[in-house]
Amino acid sequence: MDDVKSEFAKHLAGIGFELSATREVILEKLRKRMGEERFKKFQSRQSHSAASQEEFYSLFQDIVEGNLMRSLDTGATLDASLSLYQRCAPRIESGMRIMELGCWTGGLASFIATRHPNCSVAGVDLSHDVVKACREFYSRPNLGFQRWNYRWAKPDEVEPADVLLCAMGVVHHMPNNGSLPDPRSIRRCPEYKKQLEHAIGYFGMWRSAAKDGAVFYAALRLGLFARFLAWIDAAQEAGWTPRLDRMWHVDMTGEKHPLPGLMFEAQKCDPLPEEAIIDRWAWFSRRDHLYACVEGAPALAAFRAFTDKKVIGTREYRHKELLTRDEVGVAAGTGYAFTQDAVSGFRLLLVSRARAEELAAGISAKGSNAPISNDGWFQLPPKIVPAVNGVFACGATPSTARTEVFSSRSLIACLAD
């Protein structure tokens, strides 16, 4: 992986990107190229979070200038694009057509064309000036560029592809409407409905550019669950299958939080329930499969509050001479593992559905007679930190930034109907 990253960074530097220069140096080079008036407009648009792509495109003049602009965002230029390539590379075969959506100055598209000379690669962008400049700059026979604004139907010259890639080409500046969603159904909130309408147009256009069975890898700015849910639903409505089991973290330089890396297949599927999508979002946010741990009486109270439990695995055994029982299941879309011993000791783990299924398979096979929360089937974090009033914090230390804290009351409120 490091070799590919070094190769990609070297390729970008070879076509004019300034990946090692400081921000101040890049801005000074832009100022000299653009002149004071255009440079002031560029800085104004950079500082305004609602600036649209079209506003930035209006300042573009040539490839060198465009590459300098992109060099100011190493996370998008290098990290996000590289993450997409690393995911799709094992699937690329000779003769395939690969398309980069929102290609800008063609850094990723040209890299793929160089590494895969027996594939045809297309860079697609909405700006006439960008496409014209790319066509004049690049000369590889297996690399081409087409103009396409996703608000329009796919032009005939944009041929359907086997693999599609999109590194933050959309939803960069989608403002929230400020309303709070109903936690019992995110699909009823205004933010979700607005995002769904917006996203269906994109996924519908992208589906027209994909061969049946094609794969689509995307790193999108979907930092809110209502937005994430809407885009997953929109993909399904447009004829894509979201492969949430292949979701990954796209970590980027200069970004506090990772972006969700998403894979879609160009084929229809049955609609995913909201609970299943919440489960993957929770895994993404936590970066692991354990969401919370509650012990003692609060664990029993929360466990009894589950009103729609589906038990998928149980076992009874003796641990340190105590009769002990484990139950694994799914409740309200979230996996759980509940342990009880003969002296009224209780522990409840909230886990991902995928981990619950693994645990259920594990306890049905022969294994060690130890509670599910501390034997070979499941590893707890380094420390479970007790607090007052039956509250437990699950994390490496009490001060860990990603610590999750639950009381029995709040846990019941989250999981009960």
What does this structure look like?
The structure is a single chain. The chain has 13 helices and 16 strands. The strands form three sheets. Strands 1, 2, 3, 4, 5, 6, 7 and 8 form an eight-stranded mixed β-sheet that branches. The protein has helices at residues 2-14, 23-47, 53-57, 63-71, 74-88, 107-115, 128-137, 190-208, 225-237, 274-286, 297-305, 353-364, 408-415, and strands at 97-101, 120-125, 143-147, 161-167, 210-219, 241-242, 248-250, 259-265, 290-295, 310-319, 322-331, 334-341, 346-351, 384-386, 392-394, 404-406. The chain is elongated. It is an alpha+beta fold. The longest helix is centred in the N-terminal third of the chain and has 25 residues, at 23-47.
